[in-house]
Fold:
Amino acid sequence: MANIHPSAIIDPKAVLAEDVSVGPFSIIGPKVQIDAGTVIDSHCVITGNTKIGKNNRFYPYCAIGCDPQDKKYANEPTLLEIGHGNTFFHNVTVSTGTAQDNGITRVGDDNWIMAYAHIAHDCVLGNHVILANSATLAGHVTVGDYAILGGLTAVHQFCTIGEHAMAGGGSIIVQDLPPFVMCEGNRAIARGFNAEGMKRRGFNEQDIKAVKSAYRLLYRSGISYDDAVAQIQEQAQSNVALMAFVRFFALSTRGIVR
Structure:
């Protein structure tokens, strides 16, 4: 049986797995589905057309599935989907999607979303992403697996953050950030590639050398962006790590952080 505090308000139409825990003064709306093992602390609001997977943790004062902060929004039945094993710390906000996009905001698995972070409408987060305190994603942002955004980082709408990329605290990102690339500053500029992160995640020396070569093609070779993309795509045929660049190039539309 679900562990529901007497002061919590759960709409009768909400669907909660038997072992979901809901703390004092939290509110669960009628169109919410929450799977097994998820823990919701006190004073959380989970509303909207929201589907939450297994073993997630919501710390106090999270606001999940609220209406998008978009003036074009006109109460369309848009969605929020959250996967498994995510942690949402205090005061995190996550919006549903908008009809102007695919109508859905998606958060994958095993993400670590720290206090006061905001995930806006139509964002797509992969897996194992870290958003540090007060990191903010505008609408329609895509964040690849294992990306790390430092505290107070802000990402412009429609930007793509590549897999294993890293942004230093306070970065203002207004263009796409390629995989493995580290950036910092206002406006953010490239500061090398994430070799240490690759080592920690088990990439071998060959992978690290391949990514270093790709970084040099994009930032040090002096050739055009299109020529660098073509060469990296060709090299990706013999190195799996470089497929992260291929996936990024397929999504990137705003030019890259330089």
